Amino acid sequence: MSSDDYERINVVDEGVDNTGSESIVEDLEALLDDNVRLYFPSGKYYMDEQIRFTDFENLWLEGVPGETTIVPASADSFSGEARLFKLGTYYEPGDYLQIEGFTFDFTASNTGSRAIQAQVNECCFYDIDFVGEHDSGTWGPMEVDIIDPEGSGIIEQVRMPDGGRYTRNTSTDGEPTVSTGPTGMLMSPYHRGELRIRNCEVGPFPDNGLYVSGNEGRVIVEGGEFYNSNIANIRMAGNGSAIRNATIVVDENRSPDENQPGIRLDDGNAMSVKNVEIVLDAPNGDAIRSTDAVSSATIEGCSISIASGSVNNGIVLSEGTGEIAVVDTDIEMDSGGQAIQVRDGSQPVVLDGVTVTGDASGAEGGREAIRVDRSGTELTNVTVDQPGDDYRRAVTVTADDCTLAGGTYESTYYPITNEANGTTIRDLTARSYDGYEAVHLIGGYSDVTIVDNTLYGGIRDDGTSNLREEGNETPE
Question: Which residues of 435-469 are buried (b: 16+ CB within 10 A; e: fewer)?
């Protein structure tokens, strides 16, 4: 959609103040109409109540990047609900909306209204800055929903680096008050179409950084940086939704921050996390968690590092999560906890080409780097190197009919521990740094197959019935 076919209206020429000394609301509302292209020259534009415009065909709002600034009134003098622009609703959406080249200035105390709430069929938001902390205890800076299931939108180079304050630490003068605090970038349950979020910067917010709160639409994150938000830095839902080439960092914990995971996959099928870097320097939550409403997902080409500190996990596939593949992903674990947890469920899980390194201890959060509690899980060409203390293990299998094929497993304590029936271990190398056997078979299980491996120290078998063992090398 191009604006070139429509006359460009200079709002200052039409009487809109750009000195910041008086409200622009009344004069700007008079200019809003279908197929309007409004240009905001350099300056400051003061707003003390919401502008609402719905059911429009096309609307363009154009500023000068770095020079056109919207300044909201403080929450105690703002009139009505704490929004600046409400453009479209789910029942009267705008058809097309484009906003670019604005700075929303929340640096003054007790400011933090929602700058943009857009419910439209198509949109483009480009080069927008939100500066200053949202500190009035109300909504976060941006909500965007594509209402038409066939519609699409782009949010590109939108930056909100200063995050928001917890409501408990604000004056709560804004309307309405939110219980925890603002969300950075929100897609509500009314979102139905496809929205691409490219090269944006979000965080730290108390109630999620980027939050897709419904499962009817699709959201694709491409690039960008997300950091230090509580609940989740990216919380994703929707069939086919994806996160690609993004960076997620947690390097600061504010006193109310109780859980700051990197990514939370909430609901959907064919979801994807690809080429994402997650750096937890101040770990306070799992790197990636998939809930039981996710029916299928792929995690591929990711890099995760978790520094020492409290107990945290790398990738957690919750009980009931559907079919998941973790492929060519590196996890550096220096924190107590497990690099990968595969909890119980009926759908298959594949770990292929995964590498786990680091000095994690076995003292807290589970002794093993990888724990498999789901039947039929396959580990192919997995590398685990965990030389940490307190009886650290490489992998523990507690579910039936799992396969470990290829790869290398090295750890302080028994690298491979089996507490299940029907396990197959083949074509791999396993070694304990402290001289324990390579494989520990807990007694009372049956039908275990161990063939064609290099097992330093051999096998400790506490009573496995129907054990098949052949072709193994057992160096001391």
Answer: ebbbbbbbeebebbebeebebbbebebeebeeeeb
**Looking at residue 168, what DSSP letter applies?**
G
Predicted local distance difference test score (pLDDT) of residue 310:
79
What mean pLDDT is predicted for residues 154-183? 94
CA distances from 338 to 104, 162, 249, 307, 370 (A): 42, 32, 19, 13, 6
What pLDDT is stored for residue 173 in this prediction?
Answer: 87
Banded model confidence at residue 210, pLDDT cuts 50, 70, 90: very high
Helix (H, G, I), strand (E, B) or coil at 63: coil
Nearest to 317 by CA among 350, 287, 353, 290: 290
Burial tier of 344 (Cβ tally within 10 Å: 0-12, 13-18, 19+): middle
Q: Which two tokens stand for residue 181?
A: 């605090």
Angle at 209 between CA 355 and CA 141, to 5 degrees: 160
Looking at residue 2, its pLDDT comes to 65
167: three-class secondary structure by DSSP: helix
Find how far residue 240's CA is from the centre of its chain.
15
